[in-house]
Amino acid sequence: MGLWNSIRYYNTVKYLQIKSKKLACLKWSIHGIIFISICVILFWKKEYQENSHLVSSVTAKVKGVAVTNDSELERVLWDVVDHSSLSQGKDSFFVVTNAVVTKNQTQGNCLEGPDSGTICSSNEDCTKEYTNQKSNGDPTGQCVEFNSSVKTCEVFAWCPIEGMRNASKRNILPDMNETYLKQCMFNRKTDPYCPIFRLGNIVQEAGENFTEMAVKGGVIAIQINWECDLDWLLHKCVPEYSFRRLDEKNDKKTLFPGFSFRFARYYKQNGVEERTLFKVYGIRFDVMVTGKAGKFNLIKLITYIGSTLAYFGVTIIVVDFLLANYVHPSCCKKEVKSYYTGKKYETVEYQLEMRDVSNREGQDCESSP
């Protein structure tokens, strides 16, 4: 019968109206707080917009020259080919800031340095054909005197050993013309959208000291974040730059601090192949692009409004709870509170109800012909 009645009849919620200005103020205050919260979230997080993910491609160019004065290499000019074309990767570029040059290397037997972890006292300490991670060549099994106080293992390698000598939207915005790009330089306060950077400024923005970092090198992230509002009235789509260091610079927390790699230049002299070995330290810059773009969407707005209407039901729950338990007599009279509670909540004793139903069914049976 219950299912049949639910099909035949329409049920509605019963409301009780209480004439109390204080309860009315409480109700509208809660409504106001909920409404303001919904509006703040709507406009702050732009819930009325449909967002799309960012797809980016990064192109970086390094320009400039550097000159070094060394007692062995004398005066050397380092252009783009020397300091920036050696190790390039996807969405990154590398700039040499320090170099260790070992000239006139030839293949042969020579001793290791103490830093290679091959200190020995006799030939037994030098295992032939065993190479550790820091070794520069193939051990010969001989323990050779490095200086008056230290002996190291001899290796077959390029000699002399390295270090043994004492020596779619673009971030070029529409209003940036050729004249501007030739003279602008990124500055957080005066020119935050200029896409041209000085290495020293990038390192400083990352909270590092360029002079210290140039010795051992490192890795710095150039983060470009796009927050684009594509609505007609509020159209804005400009990049925001931030910088931070990615590698571990503490010698106690990593075996190989900084960033470096090696390359060699080979040549023949008197019929013997020789090479000049370069171990270069520098800073690798990884360019990371993130962001999103949003545009007004009516369906997104209607969906958000519909999902937030349920919050207004919280008002009824709060007012009913306070009215039934904590409302002060100054808000409404005790008789009104008791009357409201009696009308709002009806108590039914299950056993008594079942007994009355049974009696009625018995009476119906006796009266039937």
Would you kindly provide a brief summary of this structure?
By secondary structure, this protein is α+β, with helices and mostly antiparallel strands.
Number of helices: 10
Average pLDDT figure: 77
Distance between the termini: 25 Å
Residue fraction in strands: 25-35%
**Which regions are unreliable across 5 or more consecutive residues at pLDDT < 50?**
365-369
Largest sheet, in brief, is: 9 strands, mixed
Structural class: alpha+beta
Task: Write down the Rg.
Answer: 40 Å
Number of strands: 11
SSE string, helix = H, strand = E?
Answer: HHEEEHEEEEHHHEEEEHHHH
Helix content percent band: 25-40%
Global geometry: elongated
Structure description:
By secondary structure, the chain is of the alpha+beta class. The protein is built from ten helices and eleven strands. It has helices spanning 2-8, 21-44, 80-83, 178-183, 199-205, 210-216, 298-308, 313-325, 334-344, 350-367, and strands at residues 49-53, 66-70, 74-78, 92-111, 119-120, 138-145, 151-159, 218-229, 239-245, 260-269, 272-296. Mean pLDDT is 77; it is low at 365-369. Helix 2 packs antiparallel against helix 8 (313-325). The strands form two sheets. Strands 1, 4, 5, 6, 7, 8, 9, 10 and 11 form a nine-stranded mixed β-sheet that branches. The chain has a two-stranded antiparallel sheet with strand order 2-3. It is elongated, with a radius of gyration of 40 Å.
Quickly list its features:
single chain, 369 residues, 10 helices, 29% helix
Describe how the helices and strands are arranged.
Layout: H1 2-8, H2 21-44, E1 49-53, E2 66-70, E3 74-78, H3 80-83, E4 92-111, E5 119-120, E6 138-145, E7 151-159, H4 178-183, H5 199-205, H6 210-216, E8 218-229, E9 239-245, E10 260-269, E11 272-296, H7 298-308, H8 313-325, H9 334-344, H10 350-367
Parallel strand pairs: 8-11
Antiparallel strand pairs: 1-11, 2-3, 4-7, 4-11, 5-7, 6-7, 8-9, 10-11
